[in-house]
Amino acid sequence: MSSQDIPEDKHLPSEQGDAHHAGVAVADDPFADPGLPAHKPRIQDIDERAAKRSERTVAMLFTISMLATIGFIAAYVTIPVDKIVFIFPLGKVSALNFALGLTLGAALFCIGAGAVHWARTLMSDVEVADERHPIQASPEVKAKVMQDFADGASESAIGRRPLIRNTMIGALAMLPLSALVIMRDLGPLPQEKLRKTLWAKGKLLINQNTMEPLRPEDVAVGSLTFAMPEGLEEEQHDFQVQIAKAALMIVRIQPEDIKDKKELEWSHDGIVAYSKICTHVGCPISLYEQQTHHVLCPCHQSTFDLSDGARVIFGPAGHALPQLRIGVNKEGFLEALGDFEEPVGPAFWERG
Ligand code: FES
Fold first, then answer.
1. Site residues for ligand 1, CB cut-off 6 Å
2. For a 10 Å CB count at each end of the chain, is N or C smaller?
3. What is the residue-wise DSSP string for 154-219?
């Protein structure tokens, strides 16, 4: 934009020849408005070749965005939902989610980067001062708006045509029903699905770090071990669904420190197994304080006492963590003696 393009009332104070802004008064008055610094042209403003280069860069970013959008559609259509790939450093991820995220991210990023580059290098960057105006409409404008509204209502004949008015109200009232109907997917709750996990009598406890069956001697006093049921494979399509219910925390406590009688009966030589899923809203619990036998959920700080039936001693969780009854099989491996006897995770699943 050249200085001729700038509206009359938006010219820089210095361009208006205002002595107050131009510095005369500034020198006398330290609190005077110094005005805006003089405009410095960019390389693109004075060199047409640089401007062309910027233009090509912007066009290239927009073109990449178009290609990324085509890639997004192609990925959505061609990649199977259950395909898992290994991506360093993320590990195993869903190929479809990865491709969709990557292409959509690239498409959005390139549009943003192109727009920013365009604005910074080619659009006018001449500083203009625009005085603030009151934002309230004048009484004449308000009166005109009300008159226009009344005229519109009268022209629509909504008062004279009750059939249209009533059916329109009916249509608008019913429209939200479509949003309500899809909430059916939230219930009735599949209680059996949530009540059952993969744990069953005789299932070995697999160390989630080593993927080896756990022996009692592998669990040291003071350590926190995460376990999952034998037979659950990370590659299987419902791994996340199953581990979200079956994830287990194993700790070893001196048997004489276990206060809860049932907990002691369900343990093996001081080794206790509890659901790792917080009973507040289902975060995985991961912090263990070995002196107090407390575990802490990092999400909202619910704290459970693993030496006392995992009862809640602090925080918003509604009830104790479910315990899994465990024993040792003939080969000396830790095994489950059944499934959890209560649903794991947030208490609200038990409603209804
Ligand atoms: S999910 Fe654990 S405290 Fe909220």
1. 278, 280-281, 283, 297, 299-300, 302, 315-317
2. C
3. HHHTTTT-HHHHHHHHHHHHHHHHHHHHGGGGG-S--HHHHH--S--TTPBEEETTT-SB--GGGS
